[in-house]
Amino acid sequence: MMILGVCALGVLFVAPNFLSIKQAESLPSWLPHKQLSLGLDLQGGSHLLLEVKVDSVLKESLEALIDTMRTTLRKARIRYSNLGIDGLAANVTIKDIADEEQALQLLKSLDSSLSVDFLGSGNIRLEMTEKTIRDRRTAAIEQSIEIVRRRIDETGVREPTIQRQGQVRILVQLPGIDDPERVKRLLGKTAKLSFHLVDERQEPSVAGRVPPGSILLPSNDEVGSDGRPRMYMLKKRVMISGDTLADSQATFQDNQPVVSFRFDTIGGKRFGKATTENVGKLFAIVLDNKVISAPVIREPILGGSGVISGRFSVQAAQDLSLLLRAGALPAPLTILEERSVGPGLGADSIAAGKTASMVGMAMVIAFMIVTYGRFGLMADVALIANIILIGAALSLLQATLTLPGIAGIVLTIGMAVDANVLVFERIREEMRAGRTPISSIDAGYSRAITTIIDANVTTLIAAVLLYQFGSGPVRGFAVTLAIGIVTSLFTAIMLTRLMVATWLKKTRPDSLPI
Q1: Which terminus of the chain has a lower count of CB atoms within 10 Å, N or C?
Q2: Are residues 176 and 129 located together in one domain of the fold?
Q3: Residue 234 and residue 215: Cα distance in Å, rounded?
């Protein structure tokens, strides 16, 4: 009963693949409804190779360090000059000899991961160690992969492949995607959100000169009288950063698409404090170094939420809310390689795979019937059950089926009857030795099983190693091969033995038609 139960479950789990996606999703939740996930080469889609600009992370760290050094030295009333970045280090010159030791101790306390050296003549150098550089680059790559995964998941793409390739690259494969340009736009945006006070001490129009502690940024969509983007002079200090956002959603305000946002507890307190202390001032919302809007703070905003308005389309508002929910990339991404696979090519591949599978199965079925007669027919029934179980396992595990995966299934069809061939040949030998039918069958199965397990386990080890060390198509082949080995052992040894035993019990033959 257990053997028949497993086969029945196989039929149940593979059945949704013969329905449309809408029909499968409408099935009751207690029924299996998962279908085979087709890879990029079978259903079409996009292949992207991205590069993470990790050096920008190091540069931002150094810029933040410079600001911290400036604040620290000013609070201690230590006069300095030549504060700036040199390669992967920050340099500063202390003007008074009497302040050198105090400055050195203060700067050493800023970051334990930095190497702080006194070069003489008041010059102090803070440099990143090799371990710090390596750790920050690794963290940037891992965080970028996670953010890319979140952004892709928000678009609803099923079974994307997102994995690290080399030192600073990310491979992204998106099966069945119908709007690759939108995904490229989403991945190409860093989505770094920050809130700054507008520096009203100086007009942007005279800004070849930017006061210390200020930055000059263009508007995202406002244009000046000269046809160029309007410029805003902002205070460099970030009042609130986007990493404290808890949620963002596209919505409407005055019949215009806007993006509502909500901070977490810490961000809400900072937002409330900033708006309370700066009522009447302009508060700029900056996304990727562009000012989206700069409204006046009319009253304290204590609820920890707000609205980003601009000249958004509905799609732009949805994309911006998606980016803010997923989080900002730690470093910009550039697209090094892009390939698209049309669904027509995938359909041709599926058709070719089906043809190869059907031809292979037909030849194996004919061979077994011609060679072993009734016993060969039983092996063919087990072979069909094996294919059903492979499809059921792939559907249940939601493993992605690729073209090499189809090759693995075709190979499994040929390998699936090997165990039966070994058993049937052993039964023939026992019959020629003068044993009775029941004794011959019992000896055939018991003596062949060791050889069968040895042969299949070694192949299974190879499949596991292919999956462990391979990637993409190699893994697809390894998955179907491994599943096929397990299911073929079950059908060839247990299912065929059940059919043979049932036939023997009913007919009690004097000789075996094998």
Answers
A1: N
A2: no
A3: 5
